Amino acid sequence: MINIQEKISLKAYNTFGIDVKAKHFVTMSSTAEIIEFCSKHLKDYQKHLILGGGSNILFTKDFDGIVVKIENKSIEIIEEDEKHVFVKAAAGEIWDELAKYCVMRNYGGIENLSNIPGTVGAAPVQNIGAYGVEFKDAFVQLEAIEIITGKTQTFSKNECEFGYRKSIFKDRLKGRYVITSVVLRLTKHPVLSTEYGSIKEELSKMNITDPGIHDIRQAVINIRSAKLPDPDIIGNAGSFFKNPVVENKKLESLKQRYPGIPSYKQDENNVKLAAGWLIDQCGWKGKSIGNAGVHKDQALVIVNHGDASGKEILSLADNIRDSVFEKFRIQLTPEVNIV
Ligand SMILES: Cc1cc2nc3c(=O)[nH]c(=O)nc-3n(C[C@H](O)[C@H](O)[C@H](O)COP(=O)(O)OP(=O)(O)OC[C@H]3O[C@@H](n4cnc5c(N)ncnc54)[C@H](O)[C@@H]3O)c2cc1C
């Protein structure tokens, strides 16, 4: 039986640990329940929010609608050939459980995305990425329910319009679909991606000379655990802002004043800059305003030092944005969904 609760605190359901209330709250623990509820009843509510692990959301006020928490679980191999295996995972699965499942079977493709918090269903929404790999690289298709019509639809890779930390579900179709499952294509003969970040250094620290994907997973876990604050200890949502993409000529003019500015080629005309570096140059690392702060080691991560409200976090983010704009004439955009 579907149990719709009222006036529920969302503090335990978002990794910032923001204490706001949802007018209505419901948990969906099977795909059948999601289809039944989201295709027939969800459109009757004036406002809805589909929630996974709440690790990419900043609540700035009480939510005056229904929060639908997706918890359907299953991982199955639906097809395989000599080279590849096609894995279907339910949206409510924990992303890292899927990463672990694949690595344990030596199915390569998502090991660099190990240890990213959140659910499988949210992974396509912002096309999660880390250490040179993006969700879209292994993606085949997903199933989603269109809330307004109640119809189930399949989206191919092209139809998802993936980009850097974006997809059609974070953009044009935001809030209009409930993703119920995804299908990924993994390889039985993994090609390792070790160029990005400090994976190579970590492998050598681990004394690994001939790594497999389980070593990559362990290296990524080690690096991430050392570098990123654990939301169970200090509230945060990972990188608060996206890394800005600017034209080559903008980089050239910045280099005259800041010769050490880090940049990563995006395409022929554009480069990606490190938002964390820009924020650090503005002196924000380790600074706090009230209960909201910038992490002492990661300038891109905004943290909740205690009982910060979402508005306090947002106000700090706005201050950071303003100072980066003033110094560099670069507009930062949030990666986190602000609700
Ligand atoms: C410590 C830390 C480190 C992180 N590192 C990374 C990283 O390296 N790379 C990276 O890309 N991200 C990273 N993130 C951000 C976050 O983990 C990802 O964005 C993740 O995919 C969010 O999953 P979630 O289930 O928590 O989504 P939520 O925060 O619950 O939701 C995010 C968005 O997706 C929508 N959504 C969720 N589920 C569904 C669904 N089933 N159907 C339709 N819409 C849905 C929500 O409405 C919301 O708009 C990090 C976060 C933290 C806290």
Bound molecules: flavin-adenine dinucleotide
Strand content bin: 25-35%
CATH classification class of the largest domain: Alpha Beta
Number of helices: 8
Spatial separation of the terminal alpha carbons: 29 Å
Query: What is CATH's topology name of the largest domain?
Result: Uridine Diphospho-n-acetylenolpyruvylglucosamine Reductase, domain 3
Instruction: Tell me the overall shape.
Output: globular
Which bin fits the share of residues in helices? 10-25%
Instruction: Indicate the structural class.
Output: alpha+beta
Number of E strands: 20
Largest sheet: 5 strands, antiparallel
Structural features, described:
It is a single chain. By secondary structure, the protein is an alpha+beta fold. It folds into three domains: 5-70, Uridine Diphospho-n-acetylenolpyruvylglucosamine Reductase, domain 2; 75-227, Uridine Diphospho-n-acetylenolpyruvylglucosamine Reductase, domain 3 (2-Layer Sandwich), CATH 3.30.465.10; 235-338, Alpha-Beta Complex (Uridine Diphospho-n-acetylenolpyruvylglucosamine Reductase, domain 1). The protein is 24% helix and 28% strand. The protein has helices at 31-40, 95-104, 157-160, 199-205, 213-227, 248-257, 275-281, 310-328, and strands at 5-9, 21-28, 48-51, 57-58, 63-70, 75-80, 84-90, 129-130, 133-134, 139-146, 152-156, 177-187, 235-239, 245-247, 263-265, 270-273, 288-289, 292-294, 301-304, 337-338. Strands 6-7-12-10-11 form a five-stranded antiparallel β-sheet. A four-stranded mixed β-sheet has the order 1-2-5-3. Strands 13-19-18-17 form a four-stranded antiparallel β-sheet, with helices on one face. The mean pLDDT is 95. The structure holds flavin-adenine dinucleotide (FAD). Residues 15, 49-57, 70, 91, 116-119, 121-123, 125-126, 128-130, 169, 177-179, 228, 231, 236-238, 337 line the site of flavin-adenine dinucleotide.
